[in-house]
């Protein structure tokens, strides 16, 4: 299949640099123009040139072959970007909103000041006719001016939160496509801005997390921070015969027999270790119960020490206080399921169910982000008596706006009717 060719003037034989796009189109350009336009590309060109000079026997620049640099942008985006940088006639056709977004993203990436200024102006100007698309682009790229222009344009919609009246103007599939990459937190801030009619304080920011903007409802009262195991792992277990090493290098001395009973998956790993005679030990893994100092086998596990300490402790008998953090519980559950620790999984699920009733909004977003449909559905049903317009949780920043829209739709349809929550509910 023949290689695609760029449009003039980037297909001529002159130019000392070849840029290859993601779809394998080669653009022949002058490096000095790009060095002047982009400090980022300037550095890449300088690096490529220094490497070429190390292997070149010619000091005459006219005899050298052109440099080759591969970029991640497609040919359409790269063509538009180069035309903005080159002193040539600019395209007469109007770029689509998607093309403008891609061009602006690339301009920001390469720190091209003039293209950024021009493209921001074009996007802001289009906010009157395509406000939500402009807002979404601003959120994705962290451009407050663009996001604000789109949010102000969206004030024309009477009912923004449940996508009610917007259906008359924006098809659902188009809405879903245009807000791709926008978080539930971004959408919450848009709804808050809309509810206030745009009358917000100077410090209000659509592209910042709530709590840092100085305005708005602030972060939820429930803290879902890192969980610290009270007392840590057992300091001294007599007659331990294996060490479990976490991904961050922490060793936990435990008992093979107990791990084998608790986890079929770890049992298989331990048997393999024994059969191979794989002893990866050192002085730190000495068995304190023996008179000498003999090393014990080490089992390398993928989990970090903070999580592994809790997981291993749950394998031992006795009363254990499980963490309050929903996100930590979820990570713990996933690790326990991975190692087929049935009893431990049941304990964690019981704890999750209790905490999810207390903090259903956090539970909903965490479960949705992990594609745990049943847990997300249960949490959604526990939010029906909440005023979502006044509720923010930090987990909104980790999931898409569609996840939040789905919950808003569910609340809107639920009152007075037996409506089940559908993870695939249409917009």
Structural notes for this entry:
This protein is mainly alpha-helical and 427 residues long. The protein is 45% helix and 5% strand. The strands form 2 sheets. Strands 2-1-3 form a 3-stranded mixed β-sheet. It has a 3-stranded mixed β-sheet with strand order 5-4-6. Helix 5 (113-125) packs parallel to helix 7 and helix 15 packs antiparallel against helix 16.
In short:
This protein is mainly alpha-helical. It contains 17 helices and 6 strands.
Q: What structural class results from the helix and strand content?
A: mainly alpha
Distance between the termini: 41 Å
Q: List the strand order in the largest sheet.
A: 2-1-3
Main beta sheet strand tally, sense and closure: 3 strands, mixed
- In DSSP terms (H or I, runs of 4 or more residues), the helix count works out at 17
Using the alpha-carbon principal axes, give the shape.
flat
Question: What topology does this entry show?
Answer:
Blueprint: E1 17-20, E2 26-29, H1 31-37, H2 39-54, E3 67-70, H3 75-85, H4 97-109, H5 113-125, H6 131-141, H7 144-153, H8 172-178, H9 184-195, E4 242-245, E5 251-254, H10 256-262, H11 264-276, E6 298-300, H12 305-314, H13 326-338, H14 342-358, H15 360-369, H16 373-381, H17 401-413
Parallel strand pairs: 1-3, 4-6
Antiparallel strand pairs: 1-2, 4-5
Helix pairs in contact: 1-2, 3-4, 4-5, 4-6, 5-7, 6-7, 9-17, 10-11, 12-13, 13-14, 14-15, 15-16
